[in-house]
Amino acid sequence: MFDLRPVGYVIGLLVAALGVTMFLPMAVDLYDGDPHAGAFLEAAIITAVTGALVAMACVNGMTPRLSLQQTFLLTTGVWLALPVFGAIPFLLGETDASYVDAFFEAMSGLTTTGATVFSGLDDLPRSLLLWRAMLQWFGGVGIIVVAMVFLPELRVGGMQIFRSEGFDTMGKILPRATEISQRISTIYISLTVVCAVTYAALGMGKFDAVVHAMTTIATGGFSSHDASFGYFGPQMEYAGAVFMMLAALPFVRYVQMMAGTAKPMLTDPQVRGFFGTMAVVVLLLTAWLYFTGQESGEGALRLSLFNGVSILSGTGYASADYMTWGHFPVVAFFFIGLIGGCAGSTACSIKIFRYQLLFASIKAQVQKIHSPSGVFTARYAGRVVGEDIRSSVMVFFVMFFVSLCVVSILLSMAGLDFITAVSGAATALANVGPGLGPEIGPAGNFGGLHDGAKWILAGAMLLGRLELLAVFVLFTKQFWRI
To answer: Cβ contacts of residue 476 below 8 Å, gap of 6+?
Structure first.
């Protein structure tokens, strides 16, 4: 059997680091005079000590190079271990949560899904609201590193097309992950600070500004209020839409901009595709709200922009109950949630570049049918797309929709109605947040679901966040062969 110690060492370190961060919400409790501080202290000790012991037990097997098996196992192992311990503050705190609820909330946070089982957010201790935001913030920066370092190496879902995009990681997984994390963290923190300052300047309270800045840049969608962004004024919706768009762009382009060149950002087909898709969505929704007499011109534009960008980027905020807008917006929100933002961002779902590669392959195939003697190749960003990339993308699409069907069936077996089951499966796999229907729609939450349904949805969140195949490969015989 291959050596698990390098995997255990990294996971142990990350778990220990997660435990240390629990002292921050504990300090908030102490400042507020809330007795909940003891729960965070206990959770911090359990998490930090456990992680440190695992890391020390595995340190003698540490190596700068990881095998392909170790990389797959590490990628999934991190996203399993962190929610296990991230759930402890919810379990010990004032939420009266069962472990399944606590784990669901932690998994939703770290995968930046944004689906919640908690109601009465306005009455929760500020420490728990901050912890929810911190989980999403950690998950946001974590998935960028995974998307830029690990998934291209693992050749998952066509991500290998970005292998040479800004960083060379071949054979140097851990050292390059550290270097990339440092560059990305600088940009990530800067965007978060600017977002928080902007929210505060527009009238949002300091605490709310910090919480919403963290979950905006992570495109996570956790809010400190049950009404989400509907709690704030219209100006916040415009600011939120801008920062959600910025967070949905590839962070490697920000790195290149810091190095002095903005051209890659302006010419990136992902970026153009994202803004083009967003423009179409916003125009259609605005026209619908305006011509059906539901909103004035400005109101229709604002609501369409904010909620459309929120679902397209996978953030999951809501400033209105769009279930009441009519059939067209409901169907539109379901499908745009399956599009997503750019690869290498905090955005979720299938991603713009996969649709672009799919359409490029279809175009080449149609041309070949029309002119059998011609030579036609799919291109992306001016480069010929290899057969391996096209195959990876096609497999990803097939696996995504097969997984959607399977998860929907499992949820229906757990007692959910058709709309709740299908939209719940879609929102979990796409890591969007709210589903459709009165129970898990933008005006509801996932707290009333059966425990079995919550476990299924938590597993689907993990699958979706790690691009499906990175998890599925662990269940094949070939993976465990020496």
So the answer is: none
Whether the Cβ atoms of residue 431 and residue 112 lie closer than 8 Å to each other: yes
Check if the beta carbon of residue 337 is closer than 8 Å to that of residue 313: no
Beta strands in 216-262 (DSSP E): none
Side-chain half-sphere exposure of 353, counting CA atoms within 13 A: 27
Q: Is the dihedral of CA 191, 224, 146, 16 positive or negative?
A: positive
Q: How far is residue 440's CA from residue 434's CA, in Å, rounded to a whole number?
A: 6
0.85 exceeded by pTM:
yes
382-395 pLDDT per residue, tens: 788 888 888 888 99
**Cβ(36)–Cβ(93) under 8 Å?**
yes
**Alpha-carbon distance 274 to 417, whole Å?**
33
φ, ψ for residue 55 (rounded to 5)? -65, -45
Closest CA to 215 of 301, 340, 87, 108: 108
Q: Which residues of 13-39 are buried (b: 16+ CB within 10 A; e: fewer)?
A: bbbbbbbebbeebbebbeeeebebbeb
Coil, strand or helix: which one is 384?
A: strand
Name the one residue in this structure whose structure tokens are 């539109």: 332
Give, as one character, the DSSP assignment of residue 149. I
State the pLDDT at residue 178. Answer: 67
Biggest CA-to-CA distance, the chain: 78
pLDDT in tens, 313-371: 999 999 998 999 999 999 999 999 999 999 889 998 999 999 999 998 888 888 888 88
Q: Please report where in the chains the tokens 């693992």 appear, as a residue.
A: 154
Which residue, chain included where needed, has tokens 């279930």? 323
